[in-house]
Design a protein that fits this description.
The chain has six helices and no strands. By secondary structure, the chain is mainly α.
């Protein structure tokens, strides 16, 4: 088996690796001075956000039909956005040395059931439930932001993702009004 040397990687790949390792080093150094109770709270918050984003992306995924409609285009965009949120929290989990929740598959199933059943109920049900789900997401974000003493990087990511959820609410309200 051929062994990879540093010369195998391009300078761009090495820079990317260096940035990632610096980010990981800064996170692990943060972890070193964080109290156990704060670390437990951060882990619980990240796991909560990670699993809820999995559910959200599945809700949108299973509402999408084969028809080339504006609603489908918006559902695809929302699903992709939720996928980036999911990845944000998964990366933070691993950077802190945590693993995703073992019961996250249940949230996958809940997302599937919500999404598929709403698709059967039609466009109006999809939009009304989308507004409700995203409003709950904004509330969860606000609650977790206020109740946990987050590190600066995690807080920035959570605030960015929360602002995205406001965008989803506005998108679904506009589509519902134009319906």
């Amino acid at each position: 088996m051929k062994r990879l040397s540093e010369s195998t990687f391009s300078s761009r790949e090495r820079k990317t690796q260096d940035k990632r390792s610096l980010n990981f080093k800064s996170t692990t150094s943060v972890k070193a001075w964080v109290s156990i109770s704060k670390l437990k709270a951060i882990k619980k918050g990240l796991l909560t956000l990670h699993t809820l984003e999995l559910m959200a992306q599945n809700i949108y995924k299973f509402q999408i039909t084969k028809k080339p409609t504006e609603l489908n285009r918006q559902l695809i965009a929302a699903m992709c956005n939720e996928m980036t949120h999911y990845q944000d929290f998964q990366v933070r989990l691993f950077e802190f040395g945590f693993k995703p929740g073992i019961l996250r598959w249940m949230y996958w199933i809940v997302g599937f059931v919500f999404g598929f059943c709403l698709r059967l109920l039609g466009k109006k049900a999809i939009l009304k439930t989308g507004i409700w789900v995203e409003t709950k997401a904004v509330q969860h974000y606000a609650e977790l932001l206020s109740s946990i003493d987050w590190d600066e990087d995690s807080r920035r990511i959570i605030e960015k993702d929360q602002s995205d959820e406001y965008g989803h609410i506005n998108r679904w309200k506009n589509l519902l009004e134009s319906n």
